[in-house]
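Appendix B. Chain record.
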Amino acid sequence: MNIIYLHGFKSGSLSLKGQLIQAYCQQHSADQVHLPDLNMSPEQVLSHVGEMIQRLDEVVLIGSSLGGFYATQLVAKYHVPAVLINPAMRPWQLFYDLFDQVNIPYVVNAQWTLEHTQLDQLKHMAVPFVQDASKILVLLQQGDEILDYREAQRYYSFPLHQSMMITEAKGSHAMNNFVDKIPMALQFLSDCIK
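Structure tokens predicted for this chain:
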């Protein structure tokens, strides 16, 4: 498999979860892990990752937080399987809540500034319901201190569009004990592309 890991907001290609997946695959499989830097506008992210999906064979996605939001949109367009880790549901609203109207544009890093037009991009690219729901595994922890896990539970369990979901008590937004979930996540993805 070619595993594309989509990191969350204020992270990058050296994110801890991405590194953990890569280290696991180097020890236990021949799977290739790709860790793109997603610090760019939402439209650029979907275009960049879309090009990767079209160029590679047997592509699967693992997305965390904002990366989980992007993965949901990419599954809808390219019909690839994905594992989502505490996915962001309405990131445009989350950013308005976190930074307030007056603090946007918000400088994320030297390469990327989050602007109002990009929040509109996020809102308009969001699919209204899960597509290819059977190809998505959602991992949630109720102790997520940034996102309300119940939003993801509602969205990914919508009638006729239900994804497989595992919700754990406690935990955190970073997904406590993620390393223990890697074998299960990779098995799910492998089963989806067979």
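Further analysis of this model is presented in Appendix C.
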